[in-house]
Amino acid sequence: MVLSVLTAMLGAMLLPDDRQAIALKVAAQGLPECRMYHADGSEGPCLPVFTVTRGKAVNSRSLAGQIAFTHGATTRLSDDEFALLAGHEIAHWYLGHRGSSLEAELAADRLGALLACRAGYDLTRAVSIFRFVGRGRDHPAPALRRAAVLAVDCQGPRPLGTPAMHSR
After folding, report:
1. How many CA atoms are closer than 13 Å to the CA of 79, on its beta-carbon side?
2. Domain count, the chain
3. 166 domain residue, yes or no
4. In order along the chain (168 residues), what is the average pLDDT of each group of 10 residues?
5. What are the Cα distances from residue 59, in Å, to 54, 56, 89?
6. What are phi and psi of 140, to 5 degrees?
7. Residue 150: CA atoms inside 13 Å, Cβ hemisphere, count?
8. What's the predicted TM-score (pTM) here?
9. Partner of 81 for a Cys bridge, out of 91, 98, 99, 129, CB 3.0 to 4.6 A?
């Protein structure tokens, strides 16, 4: 109830069930070494809140534990592309990024790719998402980002501080 009121006040909607399932699968067990305690006495993993905002463009952002995807991102992307986008934003949250820089974006690309591929998504198909991405002051060129994602070893050792993943 509180979440639906909050998202309505922010002009956002909850993520559709199929996209929510992908995002949660990519997020896996949540933020490492973090537990969320609820008013009813239950507890669970620290996971971001996923929402949808208006807009036909493919875009997303991570801010203070809320990851917002544009409507276009939820409707125009394949499952593999959406998993990589979700992984990228989840990685920003896991890594504690407060702003954007070339280094932060590449780190989120690499960790997001690891999260997505360990959740069973195909990175070779997912990198087609970069057709929607331009180069900016705080974002690397799409070719560099594509190369960083494809260089991720899904079977290799886990980076320090990342949650354990299981293939689907």
Report:
1. 13
2. 1
3. no
4. 46 88 90 84 89 96 93 97 97 91 95 95 97 88 96 73 43
5. 10, 9, 10
6. -65, 165
7. 12
8. 0.84
9. 129
